[in-house]
Amino acid sequence: MFTVAALYRFATFADPQATAADLRALCADLGTCGTLILAREGINGTVAGTAEAIERLVAHIRALPGCADVDVKYATADSAPFGKMKVKVKAEIVTLGAGDLDPAHQAGVHLDPTDWNALIADPDTVIIDTRNAYEVAVGTFENAIDPATRSFREFPAWFDDFAAKLRDEGRSPKIAMFCTGGIRCEKSTALVKARGFDEVYHLKGGILRYLEEMPQAQSRWQGDCYVFDERVAVGHGLKQGHYATCSACGLPYPRDADHDCPGGDADGAWPHRG
Q1: Helix or strand holding residue 30 (H, E)
Q2: Which of 82, 91, 99, 271 has its CA 20 to 30 A from that of 29?
Q3: Rounded to whole angstroms, how far apart are CA atoms 39 and 55?
Q4: For the segment 95-108, what is each residue's pLDDT rounded down to a tens digit?
Q5: Domain 103-273 CATH (choose: 3.40.250.10, 3.30.360.10, 2.60.300.12, 2.130.10.10)
Q6: Which residues have a catalytic role annotated?
């Protein structure tokens, strides 16, 4: 039995190359598999190994600067879910491409599911889904705005256009942002605050924690949540949804419905297929 840990933390690493080297050595010693991405802005990844190995690895990560409260989601697997262990250093732990942001210090306010419900029930709150169009099509929050992006890199340009419209209307509303596991919306709030908006919030733990903790009778979620694994989509209680993935285009579709495959569209393959 393998323990699987998905984690991320926005922190400030002065020397991510040195931090990565230490992690590579530790992971080799522990025999873990998976991927960890490091950058000056923090750490992100999913790793698997024995329960003891993952406990030691997470303890090491929690000891890194600013990582004591690293967000970790645990699961189990009957066999090794990854072929090898990779520790990479990149410019960003999740690629937004918006220049120098500081999510560790500039992000919006985390809200738990109950407080989130109260915020998005306010008709004056602007709710923004920071995920891509193919994810939003599977499910989203009631009254959420879909930016219709194909990749996260498109979000800054979309938001700049949207922000200009808000300013033209003389509005500076509360903005609530969400994503699958929390990392994209947390980084997005740093962008939104950098653009001059002060009341910015994001869903702690993302949609997955919301669906895990929020009773369905009190939920404001509509549909299922697309996930990047063999389950394709999950619903309340993280129960597997009734979706399949098209082998040609990679897009999700309901198992009981016909799928109109876009095939090789003018813009090429969808981002999650490379």
Answers
A1: helix 16-30
A2: 91
A3: 23
A4: 999 988 999 999 99
A5: 3.40.250.10
A6: 179
